[in-house]
Amino acid sequence: MSNPVLETRGLSRDFVQGSETVHVLRGVDLAVGPGEIVALLGPSGSGKSTLLQAVGLLEGGFGGAIRIVGAEAAQLSARERTAMRRDRLGFVYQFHHLLPDFTALENVAMPQLIHGAAPAAATTRATDLLSALGLGHRLAHRPAALSGGEQQRVAVARALANRPALVLADEPTGNLDEATANVVFSELLRLVREEGSAALIATHNERLAARMDRVVRLHEGQLQ
Ligand code: ADP
Ligand code: MG
Question: Which class does domain 36-59+85-215 fall in?
């Protein structure tokens, strides 16, 4: 694959639990191309979140190598890692993690302002993204006044706000009922495609995985 946005080589992660060492990741080799949407499929406990935390540069303690948009993660300073996370990556979690005291619009504008966008441009972009997700009438609502599906849509808009090269999503609809999950998932895929971002999306749901461009399966700490 030429110029992948994400590449891992021999990625490993052990957890020590009492006298036992659990090898959660045992040499994961993964490449995600520009604009490619990849499903990371595996049952609960197979290491999906651990893998996403590694490539999201959230935690140390990993073996092997991670390259994101051409940069070797191990060679980044703490500051460069923060900038990479803020400017090139977008995150969607199972629980929305929206800021409770801010409106939907402000939650989506915030990462852009931190990135240095002008307030007017950040507001326009946030309005466009939320409208594209059917939330044009919910801009001034705080998260507590939104349904679960609406909260996850805001989280999707926030993840895309800075036009990331790569979206990392960890069971992004895992907390929603099935019907809502299907709708929100469709919107997530549509918007990621429209925006041209690549995505790595963890799920234990075969049907959701089948809707992505490619499926990789975590099995005994390696990809199949
Ligand atoms: P998944 O997201 O696929 O459900 P996880 O990545 O959360 O799987 O967990 C994979 C395995 O790693 C599990 O056995 C889990 O108990 C273990 N694990 C995850 N995080 C930690 C941690 N901080 N300390 C010890 N074990 C952990
Ligand atoms: Mg998980």
Answer: alpha beta
> Could you tell me the distance, in angstroms and rounded to a whole number, from the CA of residue 13 to the centre of ligand 1?
10
Mutate to test the pocket of ligand 1, among 22, 48, 50, 175 (most ligand atoms within 8 A of CB): 50
37-55 residue pLDDT tens: 999 999 999 999 999 999 9
From first CA to last CA, the distance across the chain in angstroms is: 18
Is the pLDDT at 2 greater than 90? The verdict is no
Could you tell me if the CB of 50 is within 6 A of ligand 1?
A: yes
* C-beta of 45 in contact with ligand 1 (< 6 A): yes
Rounded Cα–Cα distance for residues 164 and 146 (Å): 25
What does the domain layout of the chain look like in residue ranges?
A: 36-59+85-215
- CB of 15 sitting under 6 A from ligand 1: yes
Global pTM?
0.95
SS3 169: strand
CA dist list (Å): 91 to 18, 28, 63, 75, 96: 32, 21, 22, 22, 10
* Nearest residue by C-alpha to atom 21 in ligand 1: 15
User: What atom in ligand 1 is closest to the CA of residue 204?
Assistant: 3
Q: How confident is the model at residue 153 (pLDDT cuts 50, 70, 90)?
A: very high
Judged against a pLDDT cut of 80, whether residue 67 lies above it is answered with yes
10 Å CB burial of residue 183 (0-12, 13-18, 19+) is middle
Measured between alpha carbons, how far is 76 from 79 in angstroms, rounded to an integer? 8
Quick: pLDDT tens for 200-214: 999 999 999 999 999
